[in-house]
Amino acid sequence: MFNLPSIPTGKEVLDIAFARASKATAKGKDRVARARNLTAARVRMAGTTIGSTLRRVVRGFPSLDRLPPFDRELVDALADRDRLKKHLGAVEWAAGKADDVTREYLRRIGSAEPKQLSPLRKGAYGRLASIVGQISEDLDALIAARMELRRIPSIGPGIRTVVVAGYPNVGKSAFVRAVSSGRPEVAPYPFTTKGISLGHVEIGLDRYQVLDTPGLLDRPMEDRNRFERQAIAALAHVADAVLFL
Asked: Smallest Cα–Cα separation from 240: which of 138, 160, 144, 145?
């Protein structure tokens, strides 16, 4: 359901940025001008690469507060929407901070003495590396969240959905596999350790989605664990009919 682009680690962000910076070229009317322009080009390339790479990470995720109710439940079940927003906010902050540092050092390079150029470049690289280091754990968390979110299959909009529910170990999954024609699309929904599977069945010209749910125990809602609560809340948004086994 979530077609999220790949997310680099903090080290990969820096490796890409500094590799591109090392290939930057510049011209100038004399040796000093060329050295100044080359230093500026390398700092600019490193900074803009870091900023653009981090912004791509943020923009690769959907707007979490605008997701349909069912999708929001899935994100909460897998990644904790509030925590995910916190990680994305940190990466967005780092992108802006990288822009600020780049502008600062470009101004300083523009008026620096020749002997100051190399220390300024190293200083800029160090500041940029420090910024990325501060959000390295946020990137790792987003990488983990992406792996979970990509496991979610698409619930087809406009296709009638039958939810198969019941106690644990009564053959719900076997039923879904049996009634699904051809090779059913099967994918896990990690509301519980057992997951949920999705299949499709065609009856005449009509197509149905058949959703198998984890086993639910007969107990009050207040006694259900967080997985059961999330499963029940999510399934409430997509079920057109419920088959209890």
From this structure: 160
Same-domain pairing of 20 and 128: yes
Here the tokens at position 104 are 């600062």
Sheet holding 206-212, edge to edge: 197-203, 206-212, 160-165, 241-244
Residue 105 sits in which domain range?
10-149
Cβ neighbour number for residue 62 with a 10 Å cutoff: 15
Do the domain assignments include residue 197? yes
- Type of residue numbered 238: V
**Model confidence, pTM:** 0.80
What is the tally of structural domains in the chain?
2
CA–CA dist 15, 25 (Å, integer) = 18
Encode the chain (245 residues) as per-residue pLDDT tens digits: 567 889 999 999 999 999 999 999 999 999 999 999 999 999 999 999 999 999 999 999 988 888 888 778 778 877 888 999 999 999 999 999 999 999 999 999 999 999 999 999 999 999 999 999 999 999 999 999 998 887 766 777 778 888 887 777 777 777 877 887 534 344 455 444 355 677 788 888 888 888 777 676 777 877 876 566 656 766 778 788 888 88
- The count of residues in the chain is 245
Q: Which residues 6+ apart lie within 8 Å of 20 measured at CB?
A: 45, 46, 49
Residue 101 resides in a domain: yes
Residues sharing a CB contact under 8 Å with residue 94, sequence separation 6 or more, in sequence order = 50, 54, 131, 132, 134, 135
